[in-house]
Amino acid sequence: AFPASTVPQAPEDPLFGLMAAYKRDTSEKKVDLGIGAYRDDNAKPWVLPVVKKADDILRNDPNLNHEYLPIAGLPEFTSASQKLIFGSDSQAIKDGRVASIQAISGTGSLHLGALFLRKFYNPANPPSIYLSNPTWANHHQIFTNVSLQLAHYPYFSPQTRGLDFTGMLAAISAAPTGSIILLHACAHNPTGVDPTQAQWTQIADVMEQKGLFPFFDNAYQGFASGDLDRDAWAIRHFVARGFELLVAQSYAKNFGLYGERAGCFHYVAPATASAADASRVASQLAILQRSEISNPPAYGARIASTVLNNGALFAEWKENLTTMSGRLIGMRAELRGLLEKKGTPGTWNHVTDQIGMFSFTGLSEKQVGLLREKWHVYMTKNGRASVAGLNSRNVEYVAEAIDDVVR
Ligand code: PMP
């Protein structure tokens, strides 16, 4: 018999546990700064107006059916995804050096990349993958699940609540040649702290000298700054320098397609390689895909593709992105301003220096606990607050709560 009795109880996912605790809380004042999903000023999920339009177009299409997509996904989706992240005039795309396959949002793209690396990157003696400390918690599981060894590089300085650039660079420099370095393309989760363009250039210098392999997690393009090109700068810089690299691309945040699981995984062959390399990689990705999911889900990719391939809708999408990123940037400014006005102990410039969905507040685990018990304000115990949970009606209350727990 299958020894199910030997299967240990796994702990609850901390983030989804937090969500459940928030739901159970009956206080009218409760504020959810936990899960990283955009909320509008009424604390409601927001269907992007451009997504509604694409949805209407699809629903009114008499030829729409529910057949399987090809193994590699919707071709017009993957080609538009390449252009979006690498730039429409990308030399790598023109050279045929990019192999792209539709995957299950960002998580599935990371997983497919992990699987691919484990199978083909020195399988007898696989390299370690270096994760930032801290990083999105799921990275640890995604890479250990395929038996890759994890290593870590410092990222966050608790003193400045900014980037520990010296520590990061030192650890990367010390990594053995061939190591994989996982990088957040923009809007680092959980810290909201990104390298500057000058710092990215230095990171690329070291990685080039040391022969390290970049794997970019791109979960927030356009959502971070509101500018798609700006948020893609780091990836495009590495590609322009001729690196061989991987990208996991998610459409959860920038299209608000969280549950539709639209994403794309890309392999870029080095500038010195030919299209043949990318095409062999594509053939192996298709084999992996077939055994994992056979073929990817269609609807989210159709929505994204409808927008990405239509000039007018694309322009409208950019406005929707500005609405989301603009609201978050505005909330950061308001929270910081309120805390500074109250004279809340400490400095609060990091709230506006950080970017994207999250602010790494610097609050201790104890303070986070107090926030939850006394004030019904929920954030993860490492002090990460989802800025999307703030709105014009609760930001003063949150500032009051933070002020109380840090005093
Ligand atoms: N990477 C990072 C850094 C993330 O923050 C997220 C979403 N929380 C993801 C990947 C993947 O998200 P999804 O699978 O929903 O696209």
UniProtKB/TrEMBL annotation:
Cofactor section: pyridoxal 5'-phosphate
InterPro entries assigned: Aminotransferase_I/II_large, Asp_trans, NHTrfase_class1_PyrdxlP-BS, PyrdxlP-dep_Trfase, PyrdxlP-dep_Trfase_major, PyrdxlP-dep_Trfase_small
Keyword Nucleus: no
Enzyme Commission designation: 2.6.1.1
NCBIfam families to which the protein is assigned, alphabetical: PRK09257.1
GO biological process, one term: aspartate biosynthetic process
Protein name per the record: Aspartate aminotransferase
Entries under PROSITE patterns matching the protein: AA_TRANSFER_CLASS_1
Catalysed conversion reaction: L-aspartate + 2-oxoglutarate = oxaloacetate + L-glutamate
UniProt keyword annotations, A-Z: Aminotransferase, Pyridoxal phosphate, Transferase
